[in-house]
Amino acid sequence: MPLPDKPVRPQPYDLGPALPLAANAAPSGPALALDRVESSAAIDGTHIIYRLVHSDGGQQPRPYATARWTMSPPQLLTQRLREAFSATRPVVESGAGLAPLGLRAELDEFAHIFSAPTTSEGVVRLRVTAVAPGGRAQRLVGQRTFEVRQPAATADAPGGVSALRQASDEVVRQVVAWVNALPAPAADAARR
Questions:
Q1: Would you state the pLDDT for residue 189?
Q2: Which residues have a Cβ under 8 Å from the Cβ of 135 and sit 6 or more positions away?
Q3: What is the pLDDT of residues 65-89, one digit of tens each?
Q4: Which of 67, 76, 139, 133 is nearest to 107 (CA)?
């Protein structure tokens, strides 16, 4: 009698090496308090999610059976944002009262989306809110939604992961550029 096949272990994926930083760049901007990226429960696990827009309108998130993230997508993006911002300014924990600018982000989409059986893209949509912390109240500095769609080279988990890596890196670049272009919160407003 043949032995059953061994169970297949899911292949672990992450977003790859950190984004390249400018050579000899020292953080020079004001400190930033960075909250953990939040998301819905559907994308807060380690499953790599795909959606079939061509068959069910993309309404049902489906996990790849043999592929997993090493951390949840919100954790991966938090790490990526922290690394990228650290090149331009000190990054501290939120709530410590050490930064004139705070950043919150909500991950609304992080999936490999199929518009046809062989046509797909990695989609990352992140809503970012910048606030000036104060004593009892915070002042809204700005809010923006960033969405990047990156075509996938292959219609499978590795293709989706590669597209999501590239889309994530572009979202992070856009967020850093937007935050670095925001007007600096007034020092007296940050102390209130």
A1: 43
A2: 191, 192
A3: 999 999 999 999 999 999 999 988 9
A4: 76
